[in-house]
Amino acid sequence: MTVHQNGTISFEISDFLLNCFIRSPSWKLWLSLPLSLLFLLAMGANSVLLITIWLEASLHEPMYYLLSFLSLLDIVLCLTVIPKVLAIFWFDLKSISFYACFLQMYIMNCFLGMESCTFMVMAYDRYVAICHPLRYPSIITDHFVAKAAIFTLARNALLTIFIPILSARLHYCGKNIIDNCICANLSVSKLSCDNIALNRIFQLILAWTLLGSDLTLIIFSYTFILRAVLRLKTKGAAAKALNTCGSHFILILFFSTILLVFVFTHIAKKKISPDIPVLLNVLHHVIPAALNPIVYGVRTQEIKEGIRKLLRRARENRK
């Protein structure tokens, strides 16, 4: 309990209530089934991809290590968000502890930043493969992937830690109902009795610094790739070159499209239901995770062959 200078009394809170889709309660019913199916698909597809790359020696190459890293990030993001959302839908378990809420906030921001950075590294991988094919084996090595992974982890782990710290330092004196399915920074911060201008400014700057810089470098990479492809004279060479980076480009579209729609819905929030941004925020943690391994599995012959070998081994072991 805290007594303020104006004589009012407020109580410190120990947990929050995630009050998602309060304006559209019917959404919980029809959304729970597809959301649970997407979650199972994301877990299963990414697990199969990781096991295939781990067991198949021919896939022990830098490009597939990057894809493994992306799958790990997708699994962690899904596990951080979707089980809690489904628990709210099915069992009305809205309560989340103070510390669990800020831990979820940190993991979401950190791992989304790591995904963005991984896409940027994968774009550079495709740039070197197409624009400097003879130098590719000497540039994109296992050592390069290890350094890229360390950079990705360090950059995002260190910079995004300030988001939950800035939110946790605020004084939460009364309201504890979050109008969201997840502990998003601003959804939580606006419950405090303090000025949250610093939280808003820091999140905006960090988003443009991390995601903006990654997207800029991805655009530059694909600009150089397109220019190099257009110069190819050999018949079918351009199509073959573009096919090598088609899967990666589709993954970037999955990741960025939902983010852009989420931004636009926030801008136009007075014209749409407040539950729309909440829905998009939840879907962004499961749709790319479910589709990423499928896109690579369908479009990459080496991965398809690796999965076939894995299934053959499983059948033989059963016999």
Descriptive notes:
This protein is mainly α. The chain has a single domain (about 10-319), classed as Rhodopsin 7-helix transmembrane proteins (Rhopdopsin 7-helix transmembrane proteins), CATH 1.20.1070. It is built from twelve helices and five strands. The chain has helices at about 25-55, 60-90, 100-130, 135-140, 140-160, 160-170, 185-190, 195-230, 235-265, 275-285, 285-300, 300-319; strands spanning about 1-5, 10, 15-20, 95, 175-180. The chain has a three-stranded mixed sheet with strand order 4-3-5. The chain has a two-stranded antiparallel sheet with strand order 1-2. Helix 2 packs antiparallel against helix 3, helix 2 packs parallel to helix 5 (about 140-160) and helix 9 runs antiparallel to helix 10 (about 275-285). The protein is globular and about 65 Å long.
SSE blueprint:
Layout lengths: L1 E2 L5 E2 L4 E4 L7 H30 L6 H30 L3 E3 H34 L4 H4 L2 H19 L1 H7 L8 E2 L6 H5 L7 H34 L6 H31 L7 H9 L3 H13 L1 H18 L1
Parallel strand pairs: 3-5
Antiparallel strand pairs: 1-2, 3-4
